[in-house]
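Preliminary data (for renewal application), RFL complex.
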Amino acid sequence: MRTKIAIIGAGPAGLLLGQLLHTCGIDNVILERHTPDYVLGRIRAGLLEGGTVALLDEVGAGERAHREGLVHEGIELAFGGERHRIDLHRPSGKTVMIYGQTEVTLDLMNARRAAGLTSIYEAEHVKPIDFDTDHPRVSYVKDGITHEMTCDFIAGCDGFHGVSRASVEPTAIATYERIYPFGWLGILSETPPVSHELIYSNHARGFALCTMRSTKRSRYYVQCPLEDHVDQWPDDRFWDELKRRLDQKAADELIIGPSIEKSIAPLRSFVAEPMRFGRMFLAGDAAHIVPPTGAKGLNLAASDAHYLAQAFREYYDEKSTAGIDAYSAKALSRVWKAVRFSWWMTSMLHQFPDTGTFGARIQLAELDYVVNSAAAAASLAENYVGLPY
Ligand code: RFL
Ligand code: PHB
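Predicted structure:
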């Protein structure tokens, strides 16, 4: 088989890149390790920047998001027993949208199917080969038979644990990493959200976040020790702990119900540089990870896909390598700002075991500053809604 762009991974980065390329007439094939149902079953991100929604529109996959997504113009920061609203829209002129990653993935999968593009699911032992030459290939095993696909370029959109980054010579790549000493325990429940806007709570018992998937479905997170296991968190314990970390009004108004999903995710900041290795390009979680506090992971996957699609379009339409040569630096410049913002939100809102009472007081001073300074609140808003592409 031959294609122009071989895309490894059918998560948001790979699927969006595939559709953006298709709109420019660039043929591509996706190789995905898992089944479509497995990919759709992962409950992850929930918050889309306006730029991400615009990209869904660009590929004709935004219709349901506009119908079912919830547009938000603000968030609330809770500390010291009170909630303070940060207006996102007034300083930035932009909004964000609550629309689950599962829905984004489904819409992109449907668009891909409607366009008749090839996706090979349950592709085993996928391996990028000779990407540092002019003849890159990808080998894989499907139904026990080994295949090789020749291509012009490889897009490594295979997430943090993927094969693309792992195939690069260690001397050719620099990595930057921070592992946080806690995780997020998240639950999904068929209950109305406690508030119509997201609540990010800094509390002495640990961080909590109240978010949602719809007006009928809630998503809540609490900071937990890394060693904890979901079995240690029956629903009653989760709801009790969440209530203790919220202000009195929110605790009183919280409607609880059985969880329909429960998982623990570790928090990490990670960046690999560069994002190009000859004829292989990394995009999304394959190149970088952010802690979810800034809601940036999926949105960075989208902006990478945008930059990469533009670069390939320039290569094929204008016969220019300027775009592909600039891709890594351009993407990393936006990535590092989101890494900074996600680290800053994480640092301001969580309990850290080793920063003591001094660290806790600095956090409160920072929160007090953010909610009382128009300049600081505007800076939070500008980053939260997404920096321009
Ligand atoms: P994905 O989604 O991991 O997709 C990679 C795909 O590649 C496949 N794959 C392979 N295929 C073939 N061969 C191999 N060897 C392969 N290895 C892997 C995988 O099966 C998979 O299908 O990466 P992508 O596309 O870069 O997308 C990134 C996002 O999924 C991620 O950044 C977000 O989920 C992060 N995130 C959030 N991002 C936001 O923008 N807003 C949020 O509100 C938000 N909340 C979150 C989050 C992530 C969380 N967790 C669990 C990590 C909340 C949580 C709890
Ligand atoms: C979510 O809806 O799952 C979500 C929203 C905002 C975040 C993290 C997760 O910062």
